[in-house]
Amino acid sequence: MFAGTGAGMPYLPVWFASHGLSGNDIGAILAGGMFARAVASPLLGSWADGLQHRGAALTRLAFGAAFVYSFYPLVEGFWAYFLISTLGGAMFSAMIPLTEGLAVRRALREGVSYGQPRAIGSAAFMLSNVVCGLLLVAYPPVVVVIWVIAAAWAAFGASFFLPYEPTPDVSSSYGTRTWSAFRYVFTKPSLFMVLLIGALIQSSHGFYYGFSALVWQQQGISEAMIGRLWACGILAEIAFLIVSRPIGRKIGAKGLILLGGAAAVLRWWLLGMGPTGLELYAIQGMHLFTFACTHLGVLVMIDQRARDGAISVAQTLNSSISYGLFLGLTTLMSGWLFKGVGAEGYWVMGAIAGVGLFLALFLEPQAPSQRETGDDEDTASDVPTSAEASAKTSVTP
After folding, report:
1. Between 121 and 109, where is the model more confident?
2. Which of 84, 95, 174, 177 has a Cα-to-Cα distance from 26 of 20 to 30 A?
3. DSSP readout, 148-197?
4. What is the mean pLDDT of the chain?
5. Is the pLDDT score of 305 beyond 70?
6. CATH class of the domain defined by 1-161
7. Partners of 53 in the β-ladder
8. Which residues have CB under 8 Å from 137's CB, separation 6+?
9. 189-369+383-397 — its CATH code?
């Protein structure tokens, strides 16, 4: 999955442009995929909760995405590409939160590390980014499409090796289950607050993701150094994920989110001051806090708070709200900020992260002692038994 996004995210626009699409057309195609992610991911999450084996959802989604993406080299025109990007993106993007939710649950239950396999995903993203960039030097842009299609089919093949993860209840209809899960997530304050905090801190990356390269270019920083700065952030993220288990055990999920929020406020304030020297590498290293700490803390808190019948919906809602709706809004805002104030737009992102940090101070650090199984009631106790507390505190992904 990450090998596919590592190539497709930066380089599919190159392939679109080679087929005569304008910047506006390419932007619309990319926006279609983002909108599809925000809308379809939680709906697909509810569908996944209705299957007897959660891994079966990943197999079917991977097949659907690979099948749709395979039409890229066979068609021409804006609407054909828009349809493929929207349908394929909806299925492919839903796979990541479903996979991470599955990994977090097994990490908490079995005492294995979540961070190390997730670090492999980040490394695959970075490696595919670099390799595909090198391939574009020697080969035409169609190599990007071939890479994305191959990655999707490889994900389909890998899905057959997933461990069995049963769902507790598949008797209710899709509509009843979906409505119940959505209502549960949005009316359970402790769970909805985690989603909101994660969305605020993660969406504060909007200016960085969309305009950091342009800001650095305006400041006279070379393209080669810009590439190294991005790689520095990803490497820092990978390093953290490898050693995340003892850190998470020490400070807990709430501590991870607080650390991520505080680092985001500091990082965006520093970048807003316009540094251009070697200190940028240290600032970029803070990506391990602003993204990875926040991401991991939110995933664990969702798993601790959501009942069985709503876990996949909650995980996919986290993805669609944080990386779809909120990140889309801050990216749109960042375009105006970049045009109006340049690098100082980072300070607005710092304010958004600051709101998330403030709200995180009021999160309950303890997980419910029992996972809820009812459809509507928030009935689980907030105080874990000694055995459950030991299990929860001694195992951190």
Report:
1. 121
2. 95
3. HHHHHHHHHHHHTTPPP-B-S---S-HHHHHHHHHHHHHH-HHHHHHHHH
4. 78
5. yes
6. mainly alpha
7. 166
8. none
9. 1.20.1250.20
